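Table S2 (continued). Query chain:
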Amino acid sequence: RCMPDHNVRAKKIAELWNQLEFLDKNLVGPYIMGSSLTLVDFTWYPTTIFMEFMLPRVFGWPDVFRDEKILPNVSKWWLHLTNDHPPFAKVRKDIYDFWEQQHSLGQFDTIAELVRDKNFQWVYPVQWTGTVQAMLNYQKTPPPGKRTGRYIHCPDKGELVDEHLPSCVDMLDGRELKPSLAREGFCLVGNQKTMLSTADFISNTQKVQTTYYEEIKALVESETGANRVFVFDATLRNSRGATSLNAGKGEQVVAPVSRVHCDYTETGGPRRFVQLASDEEFKASNPSFPTKEEAEATVADSSGSRFAFINVWRSIDHENPILDTPLALCDAGSVAVKDRFLYELHFSNRVGENYSLHPNSNHRWFTFNKMTSDECVLFKVYDRQEPKFVFHTAW
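Corresponding output:
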Protein backbone atom coordinates (compact mmCIF):
# COMPACT_ATOMS: atom_id res chain seq x y z
CA ARG A 1 0.00 0.00 0.00
CA CYS A 2 2.95 2.34 0.51
CA MET A 3 4.39 2.13 -3.02
CA PRO A 4 4.60 5.59 -4.64
CA ASP A 5 3.01 4.84 -8.03
CA HIS A 6 1.75 2.22 -10.47
CA ASN A 7 5.09 1.97 -12.25
CA VAL A 8 6.97 0.98 -9.09
CA ARG A 9 4.31 -1.56 -8.13
CA ALA A 10 4.33 -3.10 -11.63
CA LYS A 11 8.11 -3.44 -11.49
CA LYS A 12 7.89 -5.15 -8.10
CA ILE A 13 5.34 -7.62 -9.45
CA ALA A 14 7.62 -8.36 -12.42
CA GLU A 15 10.49 -8.93 -10.00
CA LEU A 16 8.40 -11.49 -8.07
CA TRP A 17 7.98 -13.43 -11.29
CA ASN A 18 11.71 -13.17 -12.01
CA GLN A 19 12.50 -14.55 -8.54
CA LEU A 20 10.11 -17.46 -8.97
CA GLU A 21 11.62 -18.26 -12.38
CA PHE A 22 15.10 -18.12 -10.84
CA LEU A 23 14.01 -20.48 -8.06
CA ASP A 24 12.42 -22.88 -10.56
CA LYS A 25 15.60 -22.98 -12.64
CA ASN A 26 17.96 -23.52 -9.71
CA LEU A 27 15.88 -25.71 -7.40
CA VAL A 28 17.67 -29.08 -7.07
CA GLY A 29 14.85 -31.20 -5.65
CA PRO A 30 13.13 -32.55 -3.78
CA TYR A 31 14.20 -29.63 -1.57
CA ILE A 32 15.73 -26.38 -2.79
CA MET A 33 19.34 -27.39 -2.12
CA GLY A 34 18.94 -31.13 -2.70
CA SER A 35 18.02 -34.17 -0.66
CA SER A 36 17.74 -32.46 2.75
CA LEU A 37 15.74 -29.62 4.23
CA THR A 38 17.82 -26.49 4.80
CA LEU A 39 17.26 -22.96 6.03
CA VAL A 40 16.58 -21.98 2.42
CA ASP A 41 13.38 -24.05 2.44
CA PHE A 42 12.33 -22.63 5.80
CA THR A 43 12.93 -19.09 4.50
CA TRP A 44 11.27 -19.42 1.11
CA TYR A 45 8.17 -21.40 2.05
CA PRO A 46 6.43 -18.79 4.28
CA THR A 47 7.02 -16.16 1.59
CA THR A 48 5.21 -18.30 -0.96
CA ILE A 49 2.08 -18.39 1.21
CA PHE A 50 1.66 -14.64 0.86
CA MET A 51 2.19 -15.04 -2.91
CA GLU A 52 -0.29 -17.94 -3.00
CA PHE A 53 -2.92 -15.73 -1.41
CA MET A 54 -2.15 -12.35 -2.97
CA LEU A 55 -1.13 -12.97 -6.58
CA PRO A 56 -4.23 -14.80 -7.88
CA ARG A 57 -6.76 -12.93 -5.75
CA VAL A 58 -5.51 -9.37 -6.25
CA PHE A 59 -3.39 -9.45 -9.41
CA GLY A 60 -5.11 -12.19 -11.41
CA TRP A 61 -2.22 -14.69 -11.66
CA PRO A 62 -2.86 -18.39 -12.20
CA ASP A 63 -2.07 -20.70 -9.27
CA VAL A 64 1.64 -21.05 -10.01
CA PHE A 65 2.25 -23.24 -6.95
CA ARG A 66 -0.20 -25.95 -7.99
CA ASP A 67 -0.05 -25.82 -11.78
CA GLU A 68 3.00 -27.93 -12.61
CA LYS A 69 3.02 -26.71 -16.22
CA ILE A 70 4.03 -23.16 -15.22
CA LEU A 71 6.85 -23.59 -12.67
CA PRO A 72 7.27 -27.37 -12.53
CA ASN A 73 10.15 -27.55 -10.05
CA VAL A 74 8.69 -24.93 -7.71
CA SER A 75 5.29 -26.61 -7.83
CA LYS A 76 6.66 -30.08 -6.99
CA TRP A 77 8.71 -28.64 -4.12
CA TRP A 78 5.81 -26.58 -2.77
CA LEU A 79 3.24 -29.39 -2.97
CA HIS A 80 5.71 -31.81 -1.36
CA LEU A 81 6.20 -29.52 1.64
CA THR A 82 2.51 -28.66 1.89
CA ASN A 83 1.13 -32.20 1.56
CA ASP A 84 3.87 -34.34 3.11
CA HIS A 85 5.23 -32.22 5.97
CA PRO A 86 2.61 -31.39 8.65
CA PRO A 87 4.69 -28.57 10.24
CA PHE A 88 4.81 -26.76 6.89
CA ALA A 89 1.08 -27.34 6.39
CA LYS A 90 0.41 -25.82 9.81
CA VAL A 91 2.55 -22.77 9.01
CA ARG A 92 0.70 -22.37 5.73
CA LYS A 93 -2.70 -22.50 7.47
CA ASP A 94 -1.65 -19.91 10.07
CA ILE A 95 -0.32 -17.47 7.46
CA TYR A 96 -3.16 -18.01 5.00
CA ASP A 97 -5.83 -17.56 7.70
CA PHE A 98 -4.17 -14.30 8.76
CA TRP A 99 -4.32 -12.91 5.22
CA GLU A 100 -7.91 -14.07 4.86
CA GLN A 101 -8.75 -12.02 7.92
CA GLN A 102 -6.89 -8.96 6.60
CA HIS A 103 -8.64 -9.31 3.27
CA SER A 104 -12.04 -9.35 4.96
CA LEU A 105 -11.09 -6.08 6.66
CA GLY A 106 -10.41 -4.47 3.27
CA GLN A 107 -6.62 -4.31 3.41
CA PHE A 108 -6.25 -5.09 -0.31
CA ASP A 109 -9.20 -3.11 -1.65
CA THR A 110 -7.09 -0.10 -2.61
CA ILE A 111 -4.52 -2.26 -4.41
CA ALA A 112 -7.22 -4.20 -6.24
CA GLU A 113 -8.61 -0.90 -7.49
CA LEU A 114 -5.19 0.29 -8.67
CA VAL A 115 -4.38 -2.83 -10.65
CA ARG A 116 -7.41 -2.29 -12.85
CA ASP A 117 -5.15 0.11 -14.74
CA LYS A 118 -4.40 -1.95 -17.87
CA ASN A 119 -1.53 0.35 -18.86
CA PHE A 120 0.68 -1.89 -16.72
CA GLN A 121 1.53 -5.58 -16.74
CA TRP A 122 0.17 -7.25 -13.62
CA VAL A 123 -0.31 -10.88 -14.66
CA TYR A 124 2.52 -13.39 -15.07
CA PRO A 125 3.52 -15.48 -16.87
CA VAL A 126 2.79 -13.50 -20.02
CA GLN A 127 1.03 -16.04 -22.22
CA TRP A 128 -2.03 -16.06 -24.39
CA THR A 129 -3.67 -16.85 -27.68
CA GLY A 130 -5.52 -14.19 -29.60
CA THR A 131 -5.28 -10.52 -28.62
CA VAL A 132 -4.48 -9.10 -25.18
CA GLN A 133 -3.82 -5.62 -23.85
CA ALA A 134 -0.24 -4.67 -23.04
CA MET A 135 1.62 -1.61 -21.83
CA LEU A 136 4.48 -0.33 -24.00
CA ASN A 137 6.83 2.61 -23.44
CA TYR A 138 6.48 5.12 -26.24
CA GLN A 139 8.50 8.35 -26.14
CA LYS A 140 7.49 11.76 -24.83
CA THR A 141 8.09 14.78 -27.04
CA PRO A 142 11.14 16.64 -25.62
CA PRO A 143 10.62 20.00 -23.89
CA PRO A 144 11.74 23.21 -25.63
CA GLY A 145 15.51 23.48 -25.90
CA LYS A 146 16.07 19.72 -25.50
CA ARG A 147 16.39 16.82 -27.91
CA THR A 148 15.41 13.18 -27.38
CA GLY A 149 18.21 10.68 -26.82
CA ARG A 150 20.85 9.45 -24.41
CA TYR A 151 24.61 9.47 -23.79
CA ILE A 152 26.38 6.11 -24.10
CA HIS A 153 29.73 5.71 -22.32
CA CYS A 154 30.40 9.44 -22.54
CA PRO A 155 29.69 12.51 -20.34
CA ASP A 156 26.15 13.86 -20.07
CA LYS A 157 26.15 17.35 -21.58
CA GLY A 158 22.54 18.04 -20.63
CA GLU A 159 21.25 18.44 -24.17
CA LEU A 160 19.27 15.19 -24.33
CA VAL A 161 16.22 13.85 -22.47
CA ASP A 162 14.83 10.33 -22.49
CA GLU A 163 11.29 10.29 -21.08
CA HIS A 164 8.87 7.45 -21.68
CA LEU A 165 5.13 7.61 -22.23
CA PRO A 166 3.47 4.32 -21.12
CA SER A 167 0.63 3.48 -23.48
CA CYS A 168 -1.85 0.61 -23.66
CA VAL A 169 -1.94 -1.33 -26.95
CA ASP A 170 -3.61 -4.44 -28.33
CA MET A 171 -0.95 -7.16 -28.61
CA LEU A 172 -1.63 -9.60 -31.44
CA ASP A 173 -0.56 -13.24 -31.47
CA GLY A 174 2.14 -13.55 -34.13
CA ARG A 175 1.94 -17.32 -34.12
CA GLU A 176 -1.70 -17.14 -35.13
CA LEU A 177 -1.46 -14.31 -37.69
CA LYS A 178 1.93 -15.26 -39.21
CA PRO A 179 3.42 -11.88 -40.25
CA SER A 180 6.04 -11.88 -43.02
CA LEU A 181 9.30 -10.09 -43.72
CA ALA A 182 7.96 -8.74 -47.01
CA ARG A 183 4.58 -7.55 -45.66
CA GLU A 184 4.88 -6.44 -41.99
CA GLY A 185 8.70 -6.36 -42.02
CA PHE A 186 9.30 -9.29 -39.66
CA CYS A 187 8.75 -13.03 -39.38
CA LEU A 188 9.28 -16.03 -37.11
CA VAL A 189 11.47 -18.87 -38.43
CA GLY A 190 11.42 -22.25 -36.69
CA ASN A 191 13.71 -25.29 -36.70
CA GLN A 192 16.84 -23.15 -36.34
CA LYS A 193 19.05 -25.26 -34.12
CA THR A 194 22.43 -23.81 -33.24
CA MET A 195 25.67 -25.60 -32.48
CA LEU A 196 26.36 -23.21 -29.59
CA SER A 197 25.51 -23.94 -25.98
CA THR A 198 24.24 -21.25 -23.64
CA ALA A 199 27.73 -21.05 -22.13
CA ASP A 200 29.22 -20.58 -25.61
CA PHE A 201 27.02 -17.57 -26.25
CA ILE A 202 28.08 -15.99 -22.97
CA SER A 203 31.80 -16.68 -22.88
CA ASN A 204 33.08 -18.05 -26.20
CA THR A 205 33.39 -14.96 -28.37
CA GLN A 206 35.43 -16.76 -31.00
CA LYS A 207 32.78 -19.42 -31.48
CA VAL A 208 30.07 -16.77 -31.69
CA GLN A 209 31.96 -14.83 -34.36
CA THR A 210 32.77 -17.92 -36.42
CA THR A 211 30.28 -20.77 -36.05
CA TYR A 212 27.25 -18.71 -35.00
CA TYR A 213 27.84 -15.92 -37.49
CA GLU A 214 27.90 -18.51 -40.28
CA GLU A 215 24.60 -19.95 -39.02
CA ILE A 216 23.03 -16.49 -39.11
CA LYS A 217 24.40 -15.75 -42.57
CA ALA A 218 22.79 -18.92 -43.90
CA LEU A 219 19.47 -18.09 -42.21
CA VAL A 220 19.29 -14.52 -43.55
CA GLU A 221 20.36 -15.58 -47.05
CA SER A 222 17.63 -18.22 -47.06
CA GLU A 223 14.88 -15.88 -45.83
CA THR A 224 15.79 -12.82 -47.92
CA GLY A 225 17.54 -14.09 -51.03
CA ALA A 226 20.40 -11.67 -50.35
CA ASN A 227 23.55 -12.13 -52.43
CA ARG A 228 25.83 -11.22 -49.54
CA VAL A 229 25.24 -11.20 -45.77
CA PHE A 230 27.55 -9.71 -43.13
CA VAL A 231 27.04 -10.09 -39.39
CA PHE A 232 28.00 -7.56 -36.70
CA ASP A 233 26.99 -6.28 -33.26
CA ALA A 234 25.97 -9.54 -31.59
CA THR A 235 24.42 -8.46 -28.27
CA LEU A 236 23.35 -10.52 -25.25
CA ARG A 237 20.45 -9.14 -23.21
CA ASN A 238 19.13 -10.36 -19.87
CA SER A 239 16.25 -8.88 -17.87
CA ARG A 240 17.71 -10.05 -14.56
CA GLY A 241 20.40 -7.86 -13.08
CA ALA A 242 21.74 -6.10 -16.17
CA THR A 243 21.07 -2.34 -16.23
CA SER A 244 23.15 -0.89 -19.06
CA LEU A 245 21.43 -0.83 -22.45
CA ASN A 246 24.65 -0.84 -24.49
CA ALA A 247 27.66 -3.10 -24.12
CA GLY A 248 30.81 -1.34 -23.03
CA LYS A 249 34.21 -2.36 -21.80
CA GLY A 250 33.86 -5.39 -19.51
CA GLU A 251 30.10 -5.70 -20.17
CA GLN A 252 29.08 -8.92 -21.90
CA VAL A 253 25.38 -8.90 -21.04
CA VAL A 254 23.14 -5.83 -21.14
CA ALA A 255 19.52 -5.07 -20.30
CA PRO A 256 16.55 -5.27 -22.69
CA VAL A 257 15.48 -1.98 -24.26
CA SER A 258 11.97 -1.36 -22.94
CA ARG A 259 11.36 1.60 -25.24
CA VAL A 260 9.58 1.63 -28.59
CA HIS A 261 12.26 2.36 -31.19
CA CYS A 262 13.79 1.45 -34.52
CA ASP A 263 17.57 1.08 -34.71
CA TYR A 264 18.12 3.24 -37.80
CA THR A 265 16.63 6.23 -39.63
CA GLU A 266 16.35 7.33 -43.25
CA THR A 267 19.77 9.00 -42.95
CA GLY A 268 21.23 6.85 -40.19
CA GLY A 269 20.98 3.56 -42.10
CA PRO A 270 23.02 4.73 -45.10
CA ARG A 271 25.47 6.50 -42.79
CA ARG A 272 26.05 3.28 -40.84
CA PHE A 273 26.57 1.40 -44.12
CA VAL A 274 29.38 3.79 -45.06
CA GLN A 275 30.82 3.70 -41.52
CA LEU A 276 31.12 -0.08 -41.70
CA ALA A 277 32.90 0.22 -45.04
CA SER A 278 35.40 2.54 -43.30
CA ASP A 279 35.86 0.37 -40.19
CA GLU A 280 39.23 -1.37 -40.50
CA GLU A 281 38.47 -3.94 -37.80
CA PHE A 282 35.16 -4.86 -39.41
CA LYS A 283 36.68 -4.99 -42.89
CA ALA A 284 39.48 -7.27 -41.66
CA SER A 285 36.94 -9.99 -40.84
CA ASN A 286 34.65 -9.11 -43.77
CA PRO A 287 37.03 -8.49 -46.71
CA SER A 288 34.28 -8.80 -49.32
CA PHE A 289 32.26 -5.92 -47.80
CA PRO A 290 32.09 -2.94 -50.20
CA THR A 291 34.89 -0.40 -50.05
CA LYS A 292 34.16 3.05 -48.67
CA GLU A 293 34.00 4.43 -52.21
CA GLU A 294 31.63 1.67 -53.32
CA ALA A 295 29.42 2.21 -50.27
CA GLU A 296 29.30 5.97 -50.83
CA ALA A 297 28.42 5.46 -54.51
CA THR A 298 25.65 3.01 -53.56
CA VAL A 299 24.18 5.46 -51.07
CA ALA A 300 24.39 8.35 -53.56
CA ASP A 301 22.55 6.38 -56.26
CA SER A 302 18.96 5.97 -55.12
CA SER A 303 18.39 3.36 -57.82
CA GLY A 304 21.60 1.51 -56.97
CA SER A 305 22.15 -1.75 -55.17
CA ARG A 306 19.72 -2.64 -52.40
CA PHE A 307 21.08 -2.99 -48.88
CA ALA A 308 19.30 -3.60 -45.60
CA PHE A 309 19.94 -4.06 -41.89
CA ILE A 310 18.07 -7.05 -40.44
CA ASN A 311 18.07 -8.01 -36.78
CA VAL A 312 17.93 -11.66 -35.72
CA TRP A 313 16.49 -12.18 -32.22
CA ARG A 314 16.46 -15.47 -30.34
CA SER A 315 16.67 -17.05 -26.91
CA ILE A 316 19.95 -18.73 -25.91
CA ASP A 317 18.28 -20.76 -23.14
CA HIS A 318 18.02 -24.29 -24.56
CA GLU A 319 15.95 -25.57 -21.63
CA ASN A 320 13.17 -23.05 -21.12
CA PRO A 321 10.89 -20.94 -23.35
CA ILE A 322 10.77 -17.16 -22.97
CA LEU A 323 8.16 -16.35 -20.33
CA ASP A 324 8.97 -12.75 -19.45
CA THR A 325 10.29 -9.65 -21.23
CA PRO A 326 9.49 -10.93 -24.74
CA LEU A 327 9.91 -8.91 -27.93
CA ALA A 328 7.07 -6.85 -29.39
CA LEU A 329 7.15 -5.77 -33.04
CA CYS A 330 5.02 -3.22 -34.87
CA ASP A 331 3.69 -3.81 -38.38
CA ALA A 332 5.73 -1.36 -40.48
CA GLY A 333 2.70 -0.65 -42.65
CA SER A 334 0.72 0.64 -39.66
CA VAL A 335 3.24 3.39 -38.79
CA ALA A 336 2.76 6.78 -40.46
CA VAL A 337 5.82 8.92 -41.23
CA LYS A 338 4.43 11.63 -38.92
CA ASP A 339 4.45 9.19 -35.97
CA ARG A 340 8.23 8.78 -35.87
CA PHE A 341 10.84 11.25 -34.64
CA LEU A 342 14.58 11.36 -34.02
CA TYR A 343 16.31 9.76 -31.03
CA GLU A 344 20.03 10.57 -30.73
CA LEU A 345 22.68 8.13 -29.44
CA HIS A 346 25.76 10.07 -28.36
CA PHE A 347 28.91 7.91 -28.22
CA SER A 348 32.39 9.20 -27.47
CA ASN A 349 33.39 9.00 -31.14
CA ARG A 350 30.14 9.35 -33.08
CA VAL A 351 26.45 10.22 -32.96
CA GLY A 352 24.02 7.52 -33.98
CA GLU A 353 20.33 7.88 -34.71
CA ASN A 354 17.26 5.85 -33.75
CA TYR A 355 13.65 6.56 -34.43
CA SER A 356 11.29 7.02 -31.52
CA LEU A 357 7.54 6.82 -31.93
CA HIS A 358 4.46 8.80 -30.91
CA PRO A 359 1.52 6.63 -29.77
CA ASN A 360 -1.15 5.97 -32.37
CA SER A 361 -4.09 3.58 -32.11
CA ASN A 362 -3.44 2.49 -35.70
CA HIS A 363 -0.21 0.74 -34.72
CA ARG A 364 -0.51 -3.06 -35.01
CA TRP A 365 1.67 -4.81 -32.42
CA PHE A 366 2.69 -8.47 -32.51
CA THR A 367 4.61 -10.85 -30.29
CA PHE A 368 5.51 -14.53 -30.42
CA ASN A 369 4.57 -16.25 -27.19
CA LYS A 370 6.94 -18.73 -25.51
CA MET A 371 9.73 -18.59 -28.06
CA THR A 372 12.33 -21.36 -27.77
CA SER A 373 16.01 -21.36 -28.68
CA ASP A 374 15.17 -23.17 -31.95
CA GLU A 375 13.17 -20.16 -33.16
CA CYS A 376 14.43 -16.86 -34.57
CA VAL A 377 12.63 -13.60 -35.28
CA LEU A 378 13.98 -11.66 -38.26
CA PHE A 379 12.98 -7.99 -38.50
CA LYS A 380 14.04 -5.07 -40.64
CA VAL A 381 15.53 -2.00 -39.00
CA TYR A 382 16.48 -0.40 -42.33
CA ASP A 383 15.80 -1.34 -45.94
CA ARG A 384 15.95 0.58 -49.18
CA GLN A 385 12.67 -1.02 -50.13
CA GLU A 386 9.40 -1.04 -48.23
CA PRO A 387 8.75 -2.06 -45.54
CA LYS A 388 11.73 -0.12 -44.20
CA PHE A 389 11.49 0.28 -40.44
CA VAL A 390 10.16 -2.15 -37.83
CA PHE A 391 9.64 -0.49 -34.46
CA HIS A 392 10.14 -2.88 -31.57
CA THR A 393 10.59 -3.08 -27.82
CA ALA A 394 11.01 -5.45 -24.93
CA TRP A 395 7.92 -5.49 -22.75
